[in-house]
From TrEMBL:
<dbReference type="InterPro" id="IPR002872">
    <property type="entry name" value="Proline_DH_dom"/>
</dbReference>
<dbReference type="InterPro" id="IPR015659">
    <property type="entry name" value="Proline_oxidase"/>
</dbReference>
<dbReference type="GO" id="GO:0005739">
    <property type="term" value="C:mitochondrion"/>
</dbReference>
<dbReference type="InterPro" id="IPR029041">
    <property type="entry name" value="FAD-linked_oxidoreductase-like"/>
</dbReference>
<keyword id="KW-0642">Proline metabolism</keyword>
<keyword id="KW-0285">Flavoprotein</keyword>
<keyword id="KW-0274">FAD</keyword>
<feature type="domain" description="Proline dehydrogenase">
    <location>
        <begin position="2"/>
        <end position="100"/>
    </location>
</feature>
<dbReference type="GO" id="GO:0004657">
    <property type="term" value="F:proline dehydrogenase activity"/>
</dbReference>
<keyword id="KW-0560">Oxidoreductase</keyword>
<comment type="similarity">
    <text>Belongs to the proline oxidase family.</text>
</comment>
<dbReference type="Pfam" id="PF01619">
    <property type="entry name" value="Pro_dh"/>
</dbReference>
<protein>
    <recommendedName>
        <fullName>Proline dehydrogenase</fullName>
        <ecNumber>1.5.5.2</ecNumber>
    </recommendedName>
</protein>
<dbReference type="GO" id="GO:0010133">
    <property type="term" value="P:L-proline catabolic process to L-glutamate"/>
</dbReference>
<dbReference type="GO" id="GO:0071949">
    <property type="term" value="F:FAD binding"/>
</dbReference>
<comment type="function">
    <text>Converts proline to delta-1-pyrroline-5-carboxylate.</text>
</comment>
Length: 121
């Protein structure tokens, strides 16, 4: 988790950088318990592009007590030789990703349908 002070509010913003659903749900639960009037500012989530997409899409489609949840995806940049070691470590950390593939597919299909309906409106 990263944190920084929100401009002019005196509140601390939190960034949860995790592909783990349980970790993100815990952070959201704690944020709800603290409420919007606490010293905690924005709650933002971040994941590696292509990993935990079902989690990202779920966060984007929901709201936290009327507050939008920002979600960032980051991409690895560099030569293949530079990036492959990093990506292998992330894959090892996220071995449960294979078990989430059905959930990921369902979340992506739901997002596609949502975008198609939005485009027609």
């Amino acid at each position: 988790m990263a944190r920084h002070l929100s401009k002019g509010t005196g509140k601390i913003d939190l960034v949860v950088a995790s592909h783990n659903r349980r970790s993100v749900e815990l952070a959201l639960s704690l944020r709800r318990q603290l409420g919007l009037n606490s010293d905690v500012g924005e709650l933002t989530c971040a994941q590696l592009m292509g990993m935990a997409d079902e989690l990202s899409l779920g966060l984007l489609s929901g709201r936290l007590d009327g507050e939008e949840i920002k979600v960032y995806k980051y991409a690895v940049w560099g030569t293949t030789q530079e990036c492959v070691k990093y990506l292998v470590r992330r894959a090892e950390e996220n071995k449960d990703a294979v078990s989430r593939s059905f959930e990921n597919r369902a979340a992506c299909m739901k997002e596609i349908w949502r975008r198609m309906r939005f485009a027609k409106a």
